[in-house]
Design goal:
Length: 456
């Protein structure tokens, strides 16, 4: 998926360049802006910020129908077409759903369920996992699974990896690797520190690999029979799915990625009444998840989920409070010391890519004494991703983000299980298939390597 700027529609207000975390957008004020593909990390924040749009009453611009076609959008879409946009994958998913020879499997990221309802006129931040599952089933997917399941799986692998690194005092601090825009940034700007990234794939890619191996066996299918679709709040996830190494199943692990907005377009195109849908559950076992898996969608969520499990793996004692509020919040940067048995675990949470440079500089000077650092490219974590419903009025953004965050934590607090290692489907996955975290099978399917892009 590429992030683009329509030169005919761009007014040169420079709001997009102001929000770009890697200074990839340039141009004179009052003139169309352009994107440097070598710098861009595909976060899509420019798409969220853009306010220049095409009007159906403007006869001097290229016809709206032509723009819809060029952007690979459905003809029935009725909303302003903004200057900053991304290529759409909707037609690829329509083709999958119409192909009776394909066994279609879909997963949904945690941030989607607190945002998609906004595109159907519901309140900002409405929590609608059951309606989302029902809508996906009505679209015709054979299995409706959940990225939250693989978020729990990520914690099992990433938590074990952190314990191993801390025990050996090697490659610290360890950075999270869930955010593909952050990973791309490191590959482009600081490849000398790539070994500090967790080797864990993101939950999306772990899910894709499991769906086409373990999941395939459950349905008596082979990897090539399965079309794996993911619904993400992020415009960089499509890039991630296309990485050449993301084929641990023997096929491309995730075939197509749709953003939250694209899913909303598709639901509308198929005349599904989202608001009045009866809630349904995700399919089992790969749709089973804990509250810890769900909080991956907010800043500090990966860190909190890791601490909930890591504490108990290290101490063999229940954590004092499952709500690790010290790592929550929407600050650009925060640090905490978490007491884990005899270990004082020093952690940091970074929200927004520009705010990671001080840590990189400290690493260069040998002064970054953290054990674990979470980095998310988007300012409020995944709930503010480039593929989320567009908040048209800037004054509504704080409320939208606050409500999405609140809905995320509500979903966590209402979950019967709130620690990843307590997920019975995860336990069974290890017992029957993976055997052990960081084991041979886990490394084969769930871990990866990174590559320098500095000279590309």
């Amino acid at each position: 998926m590429a992030v683009l700027i329509d030169q005919e529609l761009c007014t040169g207000c420079k709001m997009c360049s102001d929000v770009c975390p890697v200074d990839a957008i340039s141009g004179d004020a009052g003139k169309p802006q352009s994107i440097d593909e070598n710098k861009c990390v595909l976060c899509g924040q420019c798409v969220q910020m853009c306010s220049s749009f095409a009007s159906v009453f403007d006869e001097e611009i290229e016809p709206i129908e032509k723009k819809l076609s060029d952007r690979k959008m459905l003809k029935g879409i009725k909303e302003p077409l903004f200057a900053a946009y991304y290529d759409n994958n909707i037609h690829k998913v329509v083709d999958i759903l119409n192909d009776k020879n394909q066994f279609s499997v879909v997963q949904c990221a945690p941030a989607v369920r607190v945002a998609i309802a906004e595109d159907f006129g519901m309140d900002l931040g409405s929590l609608t996992p059951g309606k989302m599952a029902a809508a996906l089933r009505k679209l015709g997917f054979d299995r409706v699974y959940d990225t939250n399941f693989s978020a729990d799986l990520t914690i099992m692998e990433e938590g074990s990896e952190l314990i191993e690194r801390v025990t050996k005092n090697e490659k610290l601090p360890m950075f999270t690797s869930c955010c593909p825009a952050w990973v791309k940034y490191m590959e482009q700007s600081h490849p000398e520190y790539l070994d500090h990234l967790s080797t864990c794939k993101s939950p999306q890619q772990m899910a894709g690999a499991i769906f086409k191996t373990y999941g395939a066996k459950l349905d008596n299918k082979s990897a090539k029979d399965i079309a794996s679709v993911s619904i993400m709040p992020c415009t960089c996830k499509s890039f991630e799915s296309e990485r050449k190494e993301m084929n641990s199943s023997g096929e491309r692990d995730v075939d197509v990625v749709l953003t939250t907005r694209e899913l909303a377009y598709l639901i509308k195109e198929m005349d599904i009444d989202f608001v009045n849908l009866q809630e349904e559950n995700f399919d089992q076992p790969l749709g089973n998840y804990t509250g810890a898996g769900n909080i991956f969608g907010v800043t500090g969520g990966v860190m909190e989920a890791a601490i909930r499990t890591g504490y108990e793996l290290i101490t063999n004692q229940p954590i004092d409070s499952v709500d690790v509020v010290a790592v929550r919040g929407n600050k650009n940067f925060s640090e905490s010391i978490i007491k884990v048995g005899d270990l004082e675990l020093k952690v940091a949470v970074v929200a927004g890519l520009k705010n990671v440079e001080p840590i990189i500089e400290a690493m260069k000077n040998g002064k970054a004494d953290y054990h674990f650092v979470e980095v998310m490219t988007c300012p409020e974590g995944c709930i503010s991703g480039g593929g989320q419903p567009k908040v048209l009025l800037p004054k509504h953004k704080p409320m939208a983000y606050e409500n999405r965050i609140s809905g995320t934590y509500q979903h966590d607090s209402e979950s019967k299980l709130r620690k990843s290692h307590e997920n019975p489907a995860i336990k069974k996955l290890y017992k029957d298939f993976l055997k052990n975290p960081l084991g041979h099978k886990s490394h084969e399917l769930l871990h990866t390597k990174y590559y320098s892009r500095k000279d590309k």
